Amino acid sequence: MKIMRFSFFIWLFFILFFCDVLPVNSQEYTTYCNPRYGFCVDYPTSFKMEPSPDNGDGRNLSDGKGCIMTVSGINNVTADTIESEMLRQSGSLDEITCSKKGENWFVLSGFKGADILYLKTFVGTESINHLYIRYPVRSKTACDGIVDKISQSFRSGDINASH
Question: Which of 23, 52, 106, 154 could cross-link 101 (Cys pair, CB 3.0–4.6 Å)?
């Protein structure tokens, strides 16, 4: 009887542990595509989307637990390059822990106050597409996988055209 009770508690522990982890790993996603700038991104269906601003430049979404996501586009009226935009955006972070750059994009990640801030930006001759994700450090384990999936899905619109 004691062995059965012990194994019951072991199984209960595993069920509770995996039930807590599974929602993060088995999130359902949907896609938002911006009609003005043409960029698209996948986001968890559990995120709530705020109404579109009047100029249609993007959207704010949040999970209600401290994770805030913003996707937006701007016209590149100051002829920014990847380097100049990366330098400007680096001012948004108190500490940069990761920095990557590709042909027409860059990623910055680090800390802003007590939060983790992740930025992915596509820079073109005529427009720029941004993805910002900010979440509390205490949510790092739960959010990192979601941020990876969102970031990998982020696709630019036509950044060589004004919108």
Answer: 106
Rounded distance between C-alpha atoms, residue 43 and residue 119, angstroms: 15
Please give the residue that has the higher pLDDT: either 26 or 60.
Answer: 60
Which stretches does DSSP call E strand in 24-154?
29-33, 40-44, 48-49, 58-62, 68-75, 95-101, 105-112, 115-123, 127-136
Report d(CA 128, CA 159) in Å as an integer: 6
pTM of the model: 0.82
Domain 28-153 has CATH 3.40.1000.10: yes
